[in-house]
């Protein structure tokens, strides 16, 4: 059965990620499609990615990666980017992270919460062996799903100053293989590539390959299907 289109009966989405550049590995193409259609999208980052640049101390890498993420978000029409300032590399799925995510959901008041794939391993189409998913990604994804319910319940974190938010209709988790839902991003691939290119210093440390070539290969891996269609896939849950 072919994937279904994503539902359109929402106006504001909150995209939750562990690190700067996580959203740009394909998901930003869907964000570009949404903002082009008049949707309002906010970003929430659990860390500043300060442990992600070899040879650059966290005190220098954190502000640099934060600035790259803000520029990257602006390319696809996102002006609201919040950082929770958890420590990069050691996110733990549990009450502390859930509390901060729930508070942010209450602040941003989305109808749809979006997060990245958080299974233990992942395999892009045509790639073998599989990749091991980041521990931060695994912790962040599970905590995000739990935090949607926490944000709606005034008794779980009663010390939070924000009013409970019960308006989340959908939780969307990105899915590379056999997604039940998809966003057609054929008209938004170039925006996604340009968005990832804003992580220039980060990508320059990953490879000697030109940044633009890296970005295009990464976005291709995240959006290109076996039949040459361009899509970003999701698995949907009720909020």
Automatic annotation (TrEMBL):
Keyword Translocase among record annotations: no
Keywords recorded for this protein, A-Z: Zinc
Bilayer-crossing regions: none
InterPro entries: GlcNAc_PI_deacetylase-related, LmbE-like_dom_sf
Keyword Zinc (UniProt): yes
Pfam families: PIG-L
GO biological process, any: glycoside metabolic process
GO MF term list: hydrolase activity, acting on carbon-nitrogen (but not peptide) bonds, in linear amides
SUPFAM superfamilies: LmbE-like
PANTHER family noted in UniProt: LMBE FAMILY PROTEIN, N-ACETYLGLUCOSAMINYL-PHOSPHATIDYLINOSITOL DE-N-ACETYLASE-RELATED
Name of the protein: N-acetylglucosaminyl deacetylase, LmbE family
Record organism: Geodermatophilus siccatus
């Amino acid at each position: 059965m072919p994937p279904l289109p994503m539902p359109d009966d929402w106006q504001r989405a909150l995209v939750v990620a562990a690190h700067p550049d996580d959203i740009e590995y394909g998901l930003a193409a869907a964000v570009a499609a949404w903002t082009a259609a008049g949707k309002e999208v906010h970003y929430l980052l659990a860390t500043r990615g300060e442990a992600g640049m070899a040879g650059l101390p966290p005190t220098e890498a954190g502000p640099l990666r934060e600035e790259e993420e803000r520029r990257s978000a602006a390319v696809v029409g996102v002006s609201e980017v919040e950082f929770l300032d958890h420590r990069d590399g050691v996110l733990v799925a549990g009450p502390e992270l859930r509390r901060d995510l729930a508070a942010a959901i209450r602040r941003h008041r989305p109808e749809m919460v979006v997060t990245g794939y958080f299974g233990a391993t992942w395999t892009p189409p045509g790639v073998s062996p599989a990749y091991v998913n980041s521990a931060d990604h695994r912790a962040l994804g599970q905590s995000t799903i739990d935090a949607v319910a926490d944000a709606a319940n005034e008794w779980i974190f009663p010390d939070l100053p924000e009013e409970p938010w019960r308006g989340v209709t959908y939780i969307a988790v990105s899915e590379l293989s056999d997604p039940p839902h998809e966003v057609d991003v054929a008209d938004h691939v170039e925006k996604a590539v340009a968005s990832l290119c804003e992580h220039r210093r980060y990508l320059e440390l990953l490879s000697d390959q030109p940044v633009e070539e890296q970005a295009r290969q990464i976005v291709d891996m995240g959006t290109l299907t076996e039949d040459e269609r361009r899509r970003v896939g999701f698995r949907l849950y009720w909020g």
